[in-house]
């Protein structure tokens, strides 16, 4: 007799920015066995699935999620009761068909994802497996290189820095534990460097420091100072950028450091940075629909840097397929709430692997204490994870889960 879904419950909880989000409980035989919370983005791609908000300005500043909660406890619950909880693909397909749109506009991707993740946790629980093992099966189990966002700009910070994330990548280490320690020490080293220059202020949404700087390149200089100040070399500790260029793209031009730039101009800037700094990865270097600039940069620099599409692909297989065809990038960022179900997320990752695209598992700027993405990164053997600075419990929760998993999974290798 299969373990079947006997009920779903949902509620509003708060994310790390103090905004409402959705939490879902999954019951099997009337026992709570799975629970998950849904993240929310600030720098969102135009092609992401719909995050359903109530829009009532008199409640939660219009950001309430009562309608999403209702969709879970009424139509979704009615459709899923009686289904085996470990048939993830079937569960997700029922919700996709029930919604009936290409972007989850009826039910809301925050509703479908919450249910999908809660059922995932429930399936792992009834099989008495760690979540990473349940996701990956016998082939799963690779600790990811952490991409730690230690200097915040763009939509994640109240500063004049255009580039959204300056991350350290401790790729030259033998174990996850050593790499993680090196990243944390570099974070504290950056704090020391900024304090010495009178630039230490608050932190951004993802826990990184958020100073005002003369130019974006100064962020790279501080990253190198932090790496070397922590006692590491740039051969073992690299830099990753999330430029989030859609945020400063207007009227068919890029506006950075007070200059108006074409896509080719911006590509030349990045190419110069690659010569001068230990940059391993550039995410969203161009706007989400500027396919021409993406393909141009990939043709001149893709052989020496990871080019990651986030707003470009939004974890959608259809957009990734277009990127493969026009050789727009060589990696994809994976955010579960951009597509709205676990199954669609895994399908997109499979498509990426078929075309030798790397996958980077990622948090959102509006996070919770939910740690599912840590297990997802390990189970799928993605090899890379973005989950912020080692600061703020919403970020540290994922790192602490990875530390727990690393007690069982020793396999750790750099994709670079």
Describe how the helices and strands are arranged:
Blueprint: E1 5-14, E2 20-28, E3 31-37, H1 66-80, H2 88-99, H3 109-126, H4 131-136, E4 145-152, E5 165-169, H5 176-196, H6 216-229, E6 238-242, E7 249-250, E8 253-256, E9 259-261, H7 263-276, E10 279-283, H8 291-301, E11 306-309, H9 317-325, E12 331-334, H10 336-339, H11 342-354, E13 358-362, H12 372-379, E14 384-386, H13 393-405
Helix pairs in contact: 1-2, 1-3, 2-3, 5-6, 7-8, 12-13
Low-confidence stretches: none
- Please state how the strands of the largest beta sheet are arranged side by side: 4-5-6-10-11-12-13-14
Main structural class: alpha/beta
* Number of continuous helical runs: 13
Shape type = globular
Overall mean pLDDT: 96
Query: Any idea what the CATH architecture of the largest domain is?
Result: Alpha-Beta Barrel
How would you portray this structure in words?
This protein is α/β, with parallel strands linked by helices. The chain folds into two domains: 124 residues, Enolase-like, N-terminal domain (Enolase-like, domain 1), CATH 3.30.390.10; 269 residues, TIM Barrel (Alpha-Beta Barrel), CATH 3.20.20. 38% of the residues lie in helices and 18% in strands. An eight-stranded mixed β-barrel has the order 4-5-6-10-11-12-13-14, surrounded by four helices. Strands 1-2-3 form a three-stranded antiparallel sheet. The longest helix is centred in the middle third of the chain and has 21 residues. The radius of gyration is 21 Å and the shape is globular. The termini are far apart. The model has no long low-confidence stretch (mean pLDDT 96).
